[in-house]
Design a protein that fits this description.
The chain is about 0% helix and about 55% strand. With about 325 residues, the protein is mostly beta strands. It has no helices and 30 strands. InterPro entries: Apc4-like_WD40_dom, Quinoprotein_ADH-like_sf, WD40/YVTN_repeat-like_dom_sf, WD40_rpt. This is WD40 repeat domain-containing protein.
Amino acid sequence: MPTVAPLDLDGYCVAARFVSGIPTFAMADGTVHRLDHGHKTVEAHDGLLVASLSGDGKTLLTGGEDGKVSRISATGEIETLAEIGRKWIGQIASGPQGVIGFSSGRTAYVRLADGTLKEIACERTVEGIAFAPKGLRVALARYNGVTLVWAGMDSKPAELEWKGSHTGITFSPDGKYLVTTMQEQALHGWRMSDLHDMRMSGYPAKVKSLSWSFKGKWLASSGAPAAIVWPFVGKDGPMGKPPLELGTRGDALATIVACHPAQDVVAIGFNDGMILAARMEDGKEVLLRRPGKGALSSLDWSRDGHQLVFGSEAGDCGVVDITA
């Protein structure tokens, strides 16, 4: 049976991540907590809104209500990467080659590795940011579609239109697909080779979490009493294929999903604090954590896949040791 090391914090956990292997918890009040030979805390922002792990997993990228974008090391050092005045940072994402994307309202920013800051004006509020796995192409989710921009050059953006509010966005690991979460309890996708539309619907609740399996064969999602896992194999991706339903619980809702870094396994966090792991191949389940306090808001595997860090909307956080 896996063991759980709990950490009871105050408030909403925006992101629970392993930063250079250190369990790290970014909270909505702007504090960042680390379990590094004891419980340690730094004040990162005056109100934290978003956080993302850097591409190399060595630092945590954060943005707050104070208009600052910061990089926090595994030892707690804070480096301010950008300041845009008293504007809320609404989205943040890491990209290839040390690039960072973030947004405030209708403006997106791309910070290159050398510190150069590029500004992208949008007609609608930026609701999500994702970088293609290769090159410096950034995708911005917005109302009625997605805007695609080459960050390293001055070129006209490409617009992908689909009616509705697109609230989050992700590229497949091979860059062949782009998928958005939507306000209307559905996913929408585009095949990048020909921009063919893909619609994935039938969710009883809004999808707030997406996670690709380590080879990109599966896309796991929340928004149902189970993890809804779509197959992305063959030229048509999930079109015409039913999804897997893993870890089904009739009395609970999956609020967060995280795929294992080296196996076709997904960790599923629920609105009652329970965590299950389920295998795509045969649906086999393992209980990782019993129900706790608050809906789970964040999950992250360690790079070796032996531990899982979690956080909830009520500050009920901790680490699950799978090997115990």
